[in-house]
Amino acid sequence: MLGQQACGEKSNEITAIPELLKLLDLKGAVVTIDAMGCQKEIAREIIASGGDYVLAVKENQLKLVEALRGCFDGWHEEDFQAGDCRRRKTSEKGRGRVEERYYYHAPLPESLRPFVKDWTGLATIGQAISITERDGKQTSEVRYYISSLPPEVKKFASAVRGHWPPIQERGEDSLHWVLDVTFGEDQSRIRKDHGPENFALLRRLAVSVIKQDTSPGSIRKKRKRAAWNRDELAKIAGLTG
Predict the structure, then answer these.
(1) Which of 55, 76, 183, 233 has its Cβ near the most Cβ atoms within 10 Å?
(2) pLDDT tens for residues 78-133?
(3) pTM of model > 0.70
(4) How far is it, in rounded angstroms, from Cα 129 to Cα 58?
(5) Which residues contact 104 (CB under 8 A, 6 or more apart)?
(6) Transposase IS4-like domain location, by residue (predicted)?
């Protein structure tokens, strides 16, 4: 975790994200944000700060997502004979499931050029298709993206894949799961003043430190060892060899 920004009681992520971006050094970084953060002002802020973006697009940007869907549907129907779309396929097995992912990344086509005036830095478009099989059942998901990156499908795929595991997946790869199950964040009764924000920062800092430790054991076990033994605490915190 590099930073955090609390949302106001009458606000949401859309207003909090620009404030968070101001706290970070974005030069040379690739910023990935889910569909709620797909906002023209946020894209402009990222480019102005020297970064690049890969933004998920959904129905909150209806005209844009319809244009993306139409473009990729046409390319699929023509088996990508037209255009200059890069493609990449990956496959992964684990946790009782098999997941295949198909990534498509292309320079901005002429049909989407009118969107450039609103989306600062817009250079490429992307599509990610995931097909997951678990317990004999198959599910699929299609997501669309806009990006300021050049047309490099491997980099695009890395950005898309890198966004989701720490945030959304189950088990100890999920930040939400770790904070809830291991650190009991949802059960916390801290409410007064800046207490909730301060302790949220400390929990995320602790998770970041523990994940850097390469010794055997789960995050839960490492946390207990650090609490029970100061030498273990120093070791996990990287204060000793």
Answers:
(1) 55
(2) 998 877 899 999 998 876 788 899 999 999 999 999 999 999 999 999 999 999 99
(3) yes
(4) 14
(5) 72, 75, 85, 86, 87, 126, 127, 128, 129, 153
(6) 8-206
